[in-house]
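User: My notes are a mess, but here's the protein and magnesium ion's SMILES. Can you give me a structure?
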Amino acid sequence: MAELLARLYPKAYVSSLTDISPAYFREKGIKGLILDLDNTIIPWKAGIIAPEMIELIKRYRESGLGLCVVSNALNNRVVDLLGPLGIPSVARARKPLRRPFIKAQDILGTTTRETAVVGDQLFTDILGGNRLGFYTVLVRPISKKEFIGTRLVRLVEKLLLNRLVKKGIIDSPQ
Ligand SMILES: [Mg+2]
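Assistant: No problem, the inputs look usable. Here's the predicted complex:
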């Protein structure tokens, strides 16, 4: 049971992706980021990416970080959003399956230690990233709106996170 729980622990927990500077990843030797889309880069089901997020993506890239989005959302929407920014993506990923993360790692051309996953859900993004031994960062969801099923999962997440923070298990980049 403890081992199973440990697979849900992110290495770091921040309120937003915009709180993490490119230097944070560089210092850890991370060269490629696998990013979640909904509620990590944009509000759930939103049609545009906020200017500050586009600015951050630009900074990540200028610092030499590779980016790839892995999303459980439909392909059309993911490609419409990320295509114009030139960011590769793996859609309909069915996270936490390993396959989409391996596909993203192939696109990035990074080793396990050079790869990080950033997402807002323990049971998809963090579990999936941990299964492959990547560095995992949990962010707070951008919007409160989400799939009804996700809302139930959030209750469990909240209990777990409280425990982790209390025990000082997770590191915070701030
Ligand atoms: Mg998400």
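The radius of gyration is 15 Å.
User: Great, I'll file this with my notes.
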